[in-house]
Design goal:
Shape: globular
Number of strands: 10
Bound molecules: adenosine-5'-triphosphate, magnesium ion
Strand order of the largest sheet: 6-7-8-3-9-10
CATH architecture of the largest domain: 3-Layer(aba) Sandwich
CATH superfamily of the largest domain: P-loop containing nucleotide triphosphate hydrolases
Order of helices and strands: EEEHEEHEHHHEHEHEEHH
CATH topology of the largest domain: Rossmann fold
Number of domains: 2
Strand content: 15-25%
Helix content: 25-40%
Distance between the termini: 36 Å
Largest sheet: 6 strands, mixed
Amino acid sequence: MLVVKNVSKIYTNNKKAVDNLDLEIQKGEIIGFIGPNGAGKTTTIRMITGMIAPTEGTIEINGKDIARESVEAKKNFTFVPDHPTIFDAIKGIDYLNFIADMYEVDLKQRKEQIEKYTRAFHIYDALGQTINSYSHGMKQKLLISGALLPNPNLFILDEPMVGLDPHSAKILKDIMREHCERGGTVFFSSHVLEVVENLCHRVVIIHRGRPIACDTLENIKKSSSATLEEIFLEMTKDE
Ligand SMILES: Nc1ncnc2c1ncn2[C@@H]1O[C@H](COP(=O)(O)OP(=O)(O)OP(=O)(O)O)[C@@H](O)[C@H]1O
Ligand SMILES: [Mg+2]
């Protein structure tokens, strides 16, 4: 579903933010992408989503190269960024219809999906209000609902739990599981290691731009009884 080959990113200030990353993610997997602040998670996600170009390497989504076949590749995923900018002078429902138009979601599916996700997140009754009246968490839930409504093959999220209350975080976790059970794939970054530990089939750990682990939790733990937090702290500690 997602193949990242030899990807590196050097920013114009010569900062090497990602160094030779390889990833292969299968359909139906939930992948947790973790690493300390500044490790290169957002940079990687911005390259996967085609927002910035890698300095080296290639990225394919469902067989489509994000650089060469960007529109075809982009039809396969939706993305919830960490610091979204959203047109907030429009109503919530207009935002969702705009996303549905972009992804060519038919009227029946869009009505069902909008209702399903916005009711689950308790924002259905606010859809007639302009987005600038929403709280931070309501905006986040609107963005997540919009990203789910096209039923994407690949659902990418950068730190989605930030700003969500415990009820909403639980709903999002359940939705991620359900999405994968239906054959979808989820790739998300997080600092909430308990969520990653409980939810993910595989975990990718990045440190100073380098992938230092990409495996199931059992294999990463190597039969020790340590928690993911203990392993993470050990693997990424500063010498
Ligand atoms: N536009 C940019 N220009 C130059 N350097 C950048 C730019 N964006 C990010 N960096 C640098 O690249 C490195 C990786 O940043 P990135 O935002 O990918 O980290 P992250 O893992 O998402 O961190 P966090 O957990 O804090 O969100 C950091 O050293 C950062 O300072
Ligand atoms: Mg980040």
